[in-house]
């Protein structure tokens, strides 16, 4: 799901306004006496419907206000039952799901089987134009509610049936042995009837069933979330709430943190990494996360989809000195990528170091040879597009271009192409307006190799932003999903990944660690395997 940006630092006007109100206070507005966390944030791209959020900023909020059938362990990433009492199957295709009793939404509505079924039907329906609709494509009847062309012939998935207030059945269109493990993804969250009764009101102030409720939201400024005192789950918030403050420059957020005007920054700018230990001592976290930085290509542009394109992409990849960039720019918070997944999956989960082979190793002479044999850079110049509201993007793009330019002996062969905001950047991607390679940083939705491959490279998949398509890859993914033996399924997914490697469908650059810095107002700060702060477990010191 999640295309990542950390569009984080306050405009001067917002920073001044906040400074005159609550910058000196860590507990203002806490009705139960517990303090409020002041954290950096970026405006979400879309309204906060669970099936319409595909980036991490909106995802942070959804993770705080919703709980689903499964929840991923904050340390291991293991999918554990949350609202699910049990999920049963005898054939990896037909599932019976029983949810726990006693759960409600923050408006008092009971969470029932219909809360899930109605939400999933809404998310899948083409008429609702939900970005995460593809996640329901495994459920029988998806092609009727979300046809490739034309209008839906029905509004409900035939594979979903409510059988009692707390039980529903799911029939998939094919076997998918690990499907239950995907259900911790927020797109599978339940929705209250209020969502359907007054959709506009719900959008303006979303209602969920998680440990926090939204108190207010001002676009371009921030959001206030407060602890829901009657939350029925075991993972109750250990603080009074979170004030998410919009920043458009991560250096400003870091400066506010050091000045005592902010408590938590979960994207320390690369320019500050050499100072962070001296500035914060042990209040800096640097841990492995399920994130990979790729370069995608616009395969919809004939200039970048020629017969020798694979040779060109391999040459560009070999012209990038990943080790130098991760050492110098990112101060060991990134590791050069050698496959298209993430080390957090582990060997058993599908990570295979070195799968990319020599195509991911810096070799200036071979890189130049391959690029020249492919006819050179299309148009004589390669523009790498990125969102400029994350400072580190500019730094690594310039470093990548410098590496490529040095190899080619041409200081204008590669240049950066900044787009002001993440929202504008995503809009241009959606409109197929990329003039060349573009930044594609991916944060896993759930810890399965399938999630690093299918959403990004399967034909017409939800996050296949470059529009790459390969029938052999698609067939192998289908085969892997149908395999009931998880170990065998992983092997087949790796075969599919070999197809990506053979075509160099994207250039993997580096695996990203999760990073966060926090003030001495906080304790028990941690990041989950998705590189998101575990907000509900953070404590605000007296």
Strands, helices and their partners?
Blueprint: E1 2-3, H1 12-19, E2 36-41, H2 56-65, E3 70-72, E4 79-81, E5 84-89, E6 94-99, H3 113-124, H4 142-145, E7 160-164, E8 167-171, H5 193-197, H6 199-204, E9 212-218, E10 222-227, E11 241-246, H7 250-259, E12 264-265, H8 276-280, E13 284-296, H9 309-318, H10 322-328, E14 334-336, H11 346-349, H12 364-373, E15 382-387, H13 391-408, E16 414-419, H14 422-430, E17 438-443, H15 449-457, H16 471-482, H17 486-503, E18 507-518, E19 522-523, E20 539-540
Parallel strand pairs: 2-11, 15-16
Antiparallel strand pairs: 1-17, 3-4, 5-6, 6-8, 7-8, 9-10, 10-11, 12-18, 13-17, 13-18, 14-18, 19-20
Helix pairs in contact: 9-12, 15-16, 15-17, 16-17
Percentage of residues assigned to helices: 25-40%
Protein structure class: alpha+beta
Please report the distance between the alpha carbons of the first and last residues: 38 Å
| Silhouette | globular
Number of alpha- plus pi-helical segments: 17
Cα radius of gyration in angstroms: 23 Å
Show unreliable segments: 1-33
The major sheet is characterized as: 6 strands, antiparallel
Total count of strands: 20
Query: Could you report the average pLDDT, rounded to the nearest whole number?
Result: 91
Strand residue content? 15-25%
């Amino acid at each position: 799901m999640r295309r990542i940006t950390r569009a984080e630092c306050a405009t001067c006007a917002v920073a001044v306004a906040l400074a005159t109100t609550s910058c000196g206070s860590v507990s203002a507005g806490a009705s139960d006496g517990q303090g409020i966390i002041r954290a950096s944030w970026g405006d979400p791209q879309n309204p906060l419907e669970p099936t319409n959020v595909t980036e991490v900023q909106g995802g942070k909020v959804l993770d705080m206000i919703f709980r689903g059938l499964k929840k991923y362990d904050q340390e291991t990433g293991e999918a554990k039952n949350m609202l699910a009492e049990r999920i049963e199957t005898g054939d990896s295709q037909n599932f019976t799901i029983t949810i726990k009793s006693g759960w409600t939404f923050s408006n008092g509505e009971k969470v029932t089987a219909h809360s899930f079924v109605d939400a999933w039907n809404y998310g899948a329906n083409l008429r609702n134009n939900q970005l995460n609709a593809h996640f329901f494509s495994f459920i029988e009847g998806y092609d009727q509610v979300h046809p490739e062309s034309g209008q839906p012939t029905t509004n409900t998935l035939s594979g979903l049936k409510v059988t009692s207030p707390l039980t529903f059945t799911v029939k998939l269109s094919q076997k998918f042995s690990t499907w239950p493990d995907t259900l911790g993804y927020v797109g599978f969250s339940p929705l209250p009837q209020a969502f359907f009764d007054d959709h506009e009101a719900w959008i303006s102030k979303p209602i969920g069933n998680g440990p926090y409720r939204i108190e207010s939201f001002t676009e371009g400024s921030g959001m206030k979330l407060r602890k829901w005192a009657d939350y029925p789950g075991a993972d109750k918030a250990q603080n009074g709430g979170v004030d998410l403050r919009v920043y458009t420059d991560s250096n400003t957020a870091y400066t506010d943190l050091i000045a005592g005007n902010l408590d938590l920054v979960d994207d320390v700018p690369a320019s500050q990494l050499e100072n962070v230990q001296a500035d914060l001592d042990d209040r800096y976290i640097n841990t492995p996360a399920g994130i990979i930085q790729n370069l995608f290509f616009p395969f919809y542009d004939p200039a970048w989809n020629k017969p020798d394109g694979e040779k060109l992409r391999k040459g560009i990849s070999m012209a990038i000195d990943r080790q130098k960039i991760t050492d110098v720019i990112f101060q060991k918070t990134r590791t050069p990528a050698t496959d298209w997944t993430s080390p957090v999956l582990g060997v058993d989960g599908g990570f295979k170091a070195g799968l990319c082979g020599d195509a991911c190793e810096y070799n200036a002479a071979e890189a130049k040879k391959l690029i020249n044999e492919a006819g050179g850079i299309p148009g004589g110049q390669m523009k790498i597009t990125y969102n400029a509201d994350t400072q580190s993007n500019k730094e690594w793009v310039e470093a990548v271009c410098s590496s490529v330019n040095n190899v080619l002996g041409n200081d204008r062969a590669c240049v950066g192409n900044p787009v002001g905001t993440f929202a504008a950047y995503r809009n241009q991607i959606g409109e197929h307006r990329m003039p060349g390679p573009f930044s594609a940083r991916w944060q896993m939705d759930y810890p399965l190799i399938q999630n690093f491959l299918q959403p990004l490279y399967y034909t017409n998949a939800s996050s296949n932003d470059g529009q790459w398509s390969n029938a052999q890859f698609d067939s192998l993914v289908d085969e892997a999903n149908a395999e009931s033996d998880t170990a065998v399924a992983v092997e087949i997914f790796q075969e599919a990944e070999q197809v990506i490697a053979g075509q160099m469908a994207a250039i993997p650059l580096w695996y990203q660690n999760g990073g966060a810095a926090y003030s001495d107002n906080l304790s028990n700060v941690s990041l989950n395997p998705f590189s998101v702060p575990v907000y509900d477990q953070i404590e605000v010191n007296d």
